[in-house]
Amino acid sequence: MAPPVPADATVETAAPAVAAAAPNGMARKDVPSAAPAPISVVSKQTVQPAGASPAVGDLRLSVSDMPMLSCHYIQKGLFFPPPGVAEASLASSLAAALSRALGVFPVLAGRLVTLDDDSIVIRCGDDAAVEFRHAVAPSLSLGDFLVPGADVPTALTNALFPMDRTVSYGGHARPLASFQLTVLGDGAVFVGFVANHAVVDGTSFWHFFNTWAGMCRGAPVREPDFRRNFFGDCAAVLRFPGGAGPAVTFDADAPLRERILHFSAAAIRELKATANRSKRTGQDDSSESVVNGKVTHDARAHGQGVCREISSFQSLCAHIWRAVTRARRQLAADTTTTFRMAVNCRHRLRPAISPLYFGNAIQSVATTATVAELASSDLGWAAAKLNATVAAHDDGAIRRAAAEWEAAPRCFPLGNPDGAALTMGSSPRFPMYDGNDFGWGRALAVRSGRANKFDGKMSAFPGQAGDGSVDVEVCLAPDTMACLLRDEGVLAVRVVLPCTVTKGRSI
């Protein structure tokens, strides 16, 4: 049996700096103190589920959960304007609401346990709890984080999240979730939520976030569904020789630049119209796609019909796929590029499973094309390929992929090993702004930590205005990002984020 082990790399970036110590334990006066950390944690507390939590028992990780054991914990959070509440009261009210929310979602307060047969379960014992941190950044304001037309200041943003670089297998010894309230010098706040990726996917992540915020307003609770039977009983397990847990499957220290690209609702409507107009005028739809490693033909082979409308998001993804491929100047014309995205299986299975299912119910699908094909074809061609891949991922494809995984269990190979891949995570449909009002008004911006980021990793967020615009968090190698930002084809569509900062507030 694999014993519980801590994550293979954990760095607490928000800890306050201390002076160098002399051998006798006294602070050395001849060595200057390190500069104070701009974000420092002033208190930590454990928060337990309140009330009589649902009796969920041991929850065995599913075929969608287990591949995520090698991924970092999910790190997402929201900036809010000054709440107008005393800081001490703010922290205590958030912790109290968190306790009530955990009473509805007790699995987040549990731990991972490896059983004698090497299966892994989520166990909620009497000591179930999460960590809640209260941090301050008196020298920082919103303007230091939300900088229009500039890279994301990752050195600052990363310190907004606890459990940095914690791998999900580490949930054997560490909490499955952690939370941090950071109060900036201008009174604005950031609420960060970190969750084990083998326990939640994006849909479940935001379901909990919404519930926590709703507890502060007295909003109705949407009860989660903890059942694990939608694929039937799975006997497959992942084994880790020597008891050492997995590491992430990409180089977490590779240099990256990160940008938030804003696409207005009008720009996205135009992309969709262009993609579908090209499709109607007779572009070749008979392309091949890769779904879970299998070559599949276009939508006609799956009974979907070639007139299936290309969505706004597929059109936007095709635009980015083409633009990033152009920016990767080192790629040869015959290089195969891959665009990978996560597909929510909840509504695709037959019978469908509850949209409130709490756990991972996602699979990754990939679409491929050569550099030359993307360069010589228009937006509609690339968008039609993405559309066909997604359309083909129906109940049968989902169950085949699950069966293939059971036959050869493995951790999900997240990353970009050949330098020609892109991976789109998150979704503009997630309720990041809608539903996450803690009583202080609408959030100002979504940001993430450095978890699961590599060259070609992107995440899509809904625009803050709620008008159909989309923000895309783009992580690229520095030279690729420089080329992308010089691409007039990207700049002609992208609309610069309408964010101005006045007295530290983004409006």
Polypeptide structure, described:
This protein has 507 residues and is an alpha+beta fold. 23% of the residues lie in helices and 21% in strands. It contains 11 helices and 19 strands. The strands form 5 sheets. It has a 6-stranded mixed sheet with strand order 1-6-7-8-3-15, with helices on one face. Strands 9-17-16-14-12-13 form a 6-stranded mixed sheet. Strands 2-5-4 form a 3-stranded antiparallel sheet, with no helix packed on it. The longest helix has 18 residues, at 87-104. The protein is globular and about 60 Å long. One of its GO terms (molecular function) is acyltransferase activity, transferring groups other than amino-acyl groups.
Helix content: 10-25%
Low-confidence stretches: 1-33, 282-307, 495-507
Put simply, the count of helices is: 11
Shape: globular
What percent strand?
15-25%
- Which structural class do you get from the secondary structure elements? alpha+beta
Overall number of strands:
19
> How far apart are the termini?
54 Å
Average pLDDT over all residues: 86
> Reading side by side through the largest sheet, how are the strands ordered?
1-6-7-8-3-15
How large, in whole angstroms, is the Cα Rg?
23 Å
**SSE arrangement, N to C:** EEEHEEEHHEEHEHEEHEEHHHEEEEHHEE
Describe the biggest sheet?
6 strands, mixed
Protein name: Acetyltransferase
Organism: Urochloa decumbens
GO molecular function, one term: acyltransferase activity, transferring groups other than amino-acyl groups
Keywords: Transferase
